[in-house]
Amino acid sequence: MLRVEGLQAAYGASQALFDVSLHVGEGAFVTLMGRNGMGKTTTIRTIMGLLSARAGRVTLAGRDVTRAAPEIVARLGVGLVPEGRQIFPTLTVRENLVATAADRFGRKDPWTLARVVALFPRLGERAGQSASTLSGGEQQMLAIGRALMTNPRLLILDEATEGLAPVIRAEIWACLEKLKAEGQSILVVDKNVGVLRRLADRHFVIEKGRTVWSGDGAALDRDREKVNGWVGL
């Protein structure tokens, strides 16, 4: 579904990515881990076309999107839940969900307003409220719901549970587990090694703009101390 090879990117004269490689298979749940400031969000921004790649290659379902515009990447089926949520604060919950709704690939069971509300009942209860009145956890649910309404082939979550209360984190993880069971391809940026070990099929660790480790759950167990050192836990 997604393949990133030797990715390099910079902010002006300051290079942030030097050699990032990862891949997400069809229906796979993959993590990108690392301490703050190591290049995780920059990687996501470059995949999405929000930051131009200096070198390397990004392919989506076999199509080269290395230097594609963000709207092209989105139309090709990438749904992003960005760091900081970035919901539309002046719109209602319902308006946020339907604003970018689409089903470009003719899914058999497409994401609709009713289906998102079934996944996150709180959003149904607050459908007419301004999004700015939601709690942080509810805003994250809204950001996930908004991305799902685009019926993505690949769902990317940047800092999926950062700053959320434990009970809300558990709800988000349960949601992602359901999506995985339905065959949704998922790439998650987060630091919760314990939960991610249970949920994910494969893990990639980034350090100073380079992929320094990758492996499945068994490999993570073997190298747990090393990975914890890179992730900062």
SSE blueprint and pairings:
Layout: E1 2-11, E2 14-24, E3 29-33, H1 40-47, E4 53-60, E5 63-64, H2 70-75, E6 78-81, H3 93-99, H4 113-119, H5 121-125, H6 136-148, E7 154-158, H7 166-181, E8 185-189, H8 193-199, E9 202-207, E10 210-215, H9 217-222, H10 224-231
Parallel strand pairs: 3-8, 3-9, 6-7, 7-8
Antiparallel strand pairs: 1-2, 1-4, 4-5, 9-10
Helix pairs in contact: 3-6
Report the CATH topology name of the largest domain: Rossmann fold
Helical content stands at 25-40%
Q: Strand order across the biggest sheet?
A: 6-7-8-3-9-10
Reported for the largest beta sheet, the result is:
6 strands, mixed
Question: What would your notes on this structure say?
Answer:
The chain has a 6-stranded mixed sheet with strand order 6-7-8-3-9-10, with helices on both faces. The chain has 10 helices and 10 strands. 36% of the residues lie in helices and 27% in strands.
Characteristic key phrases:
alpha/beta, 6-stranded mixed beta sheet, 4-stranded antiparallel beta sheet
Short description:
This protein has 233 residues and is an alpha/beta fold.
